[in-house]
Amino acid sequence: MPPTNRLALITGPTSGIGKITAIELAKRNFDLILVARNPQKVAELQRELGNHVQTDFVECDLARLSSVREAVAKIKARYSKLDVLINNAGLMMDHLEISPDGVEMTFATNHLGPFLLTTELLDLLKAGDQARIVHVSSEAHRFGTFRIDQLAQPATFSSWGTYGNSKLANILFSNALAERLQPFGITSNALHPGGVATNFAGQSTGLVNLTMKLIRPFFKTPEEGAQMTIYLASSPEVEGVTGKYFSDLKQKKPHKDAQSSFLANKLWALSEELTRN
């Protein structure tokens, strides 16, 4: 018999709010596709999740478009539908680094890789049951200085500015998807999880890392931070709700730039150009 559980894909599920999201969705009888870079960490998570739901590991480095394409090919070979896609993985850099595809690393990991993953899996989502797409953004989107020509290869680098631009891109992408996918009954929403005490920015070594260590004691626990993602992925209260931005389990108005259809369309065009084979 075919599986009766809903199927959710989570990027970055091995730590922080991604891990809590995976655990809680498994408790809600979701089968899970765990998209991550580290096989050992995924194996540990799978042991923790147990056998009452099916879990599948697909290796992927979101900063490498070739890796995203390989992951998509594996997912399409194994599955004919997808009910929930959670773009959770993200990073914050304290220095300028360029991806193998020639794109600034923050933008590559937080937006461009998820853009390619999501758009390549739309056929599976269309075959899903009232499918949902959930984007983990941040209130840091208000720090961005959004210039389309500076996203992939910025002339100057700022940790918070670059991160803010990537989080603004998350909301613009979510809104663009909501508009395009509404005829198919697929919803797309973005969220702010709150300041969460995780190893986020752990790859940073400078002022960013020091700042995060100082303020981390005042943050939410990962369990608290994951509630918004879990809510958008599974709650019947948001069935049919699309193109919105959420914080603390309620809709919130994002920055005016995040509401711009013009910027959303420009970002989509740039993303298509950058991900073209």
From TrEMBL:
Protein name according to UniProt = NAD(P)-dependent dehydrogenase (Short-subunit alcohol dehydrogenase family)
Keywords of this protein's UniProt record, alphabetized? Oxidoreductase
Q: Which InterPro entries match?
A: NAD(P)-bd_dom_sf, SDR_fam
Q: Which family does it belong to?
A: Belongs to the short-chain dehydrogenases/reductases (SDR) family.
The record's CDD domains line, in alphabetical order, gives:
retinol-DH_like_SDR_c_like (cd05327)
Q: Which organism is it from?
A: Rhabdobacter roseus
Example of a GO MF term = oxidoreductase activity
* Pfam families with a match to the protein in the record: adh_short
